Amino acid sequence: MLVVGPNGAGKTNLLESLHVGTQGFSPRTRNDVELVRFGEATGRVSLRGRRAETPLELDVTLELGKGKRAKLNGGPLRAAELLRAEVSTLVFTPDRLGIVKGAPAVRRAYFDRALGRLFPARAGLSAEYGAVVGQRNAALRRVANGLSTRDALDPWTEQVAALGTELAAARRHALELLTPAFARLTGAFGLEAGRLAYEGGPVLREQLDERIARDLERGTTSLGPHLDDVAVLAGERDLRTYGSQGEQRLAVLSLLLAEAEILLERSGVPPLLLLDDVLSELDPERRATLARVLPEGGQTLITSTTVGALPLAPDQLLEVAPGTVHAA
What we know:
Order of helices and strands: EHEEEEEHHHHEHHEEHHEHEEE
Radius of gyration: 22 Å
Largest sheet: 6 strands, mixed
Strand content: 15-25%
Structural class: alpha/beta
Number of strands: 13
Shape: globular
CATH class of the largest domain: Mainly Alpha
Distance between the termini: 11 Å
Oligomer: single chain
């Protein structure tokens, strides 16, 4: 599906609403106030579709001061973000170059979300580990202030070691799963074969114990996957430092398409792809490559200012003007 319209017409808003309606949150902001039209008290996204042969009805309502409510096929969900367990949606926006060139925390967050989509049973692992690190940090500060003994650290240190080792191993597994498709897709887009390298390792209890004096002084846990990173490489080049913006853009796009491919293989259901302004900085050859490597059988929405930017006839063409969307 191709969504066209002039800059500022609302194409990105349309894609954002689809992300909110299928995932329960915006890819742009975590401040729900920004999702409600200025001057209004409520907003709503209501979607109807199919997952394979199963009808789907998704509903997300936002009320200022009351948070979000979500329904799946008419039944209320405990939290809107639980929609992610039902529908996989992958989004590309120009600001996602931070996945390659941004801070390590940006990459950790991205790959932890990918980990949750690829291995749903492990979706909560990163949050669980983060909570345990938070508890250990609080215990460190209590000990440093004389409000507790070092023995109080032991259970939290044990959990940090166990969950940290499990999280690092799960991340490595996800990267190993993604790398072959990522290498092939970066090659298709004219880059050297891509590679994903995990920078971190298991968290040993002995290592944490050796760092207790430093951790007490700083009040934080100084070892673990909350500090690890992922190198996004083209050949031997680390694109964080030695990649142009165009190469970084192609790497992010290749990552998204690689994950889409793996999700389809593992579940039999392709994810919804939302590609915002992806064509504007691709030359004609790479636009043709993108059209060729898009997953078959799923739904992809691409925004553009012109119909001719896409080198194939879309299955559906939507035109966006301020406040309106209609089929062309």
